[in-house]
Amino acid sequence: MTRAKKRLLTSRFEDALVFTAQLHAQQRRKGGQTPYLSHLMSVAALVLEDGGGEDEAIAALLHDSAEDQGGKKALEKIRSLFGNRVAEIVLECSDSMTTPKPRWKARKLQHIEHIRSASPEAQRVISADKLHNARSVLRDLRSLGSSTWDKFLGGKDGTLWYYRAVQQALNHGSKSYLLEELERVITKIEKLA
Predict the structure, then answer these.
(1) Domains and CATH numbers, the chain
(2) Could you say which of 44, 75, 135, 171 would form a disulfide bridge with 66 (CB–CB 3.0 to 4.6 Å)?
């Protein structure tokens, strides 16, 4: 008798993918026409490739949902559909759940400080999120040049500072492939900027 392979992702992940696609259906990446869902799927893929489990992958799909799509109400919906652990990771990844959001610099400073004490699961999702974002910035710098910075509230200097500060806050914990890759991409961005 052959032993059946354990399924790595269950129908919970499929449900999360559908929920995420519906929630972010009208959203586009900053300054372009790329569906926002592409970012969320990429972050989930990076989490899975780094060894994250299903809860982390679901949280990766949903990491911007509470922040961008309804605050505490959205977080409670995530909790009811996907459980406490997923909701807690999403909460740890969110830099604000209020509307209007606090001023950019204050919000980023607070989030950077929070990252240092975030759970390992949340740090993995945050690392994957920042890596995918940094790769997008690098791609845009290569194709669009300095106009890339126009789409960021922090502009060139603030964005460069933020990425490096997040990378350093994440390095406070243990090293990983995601963090090494994030550092490499940020260094390339700094050289092109």
Answers:
(1) 11-192 (1.10.3210.10)
(2) 75
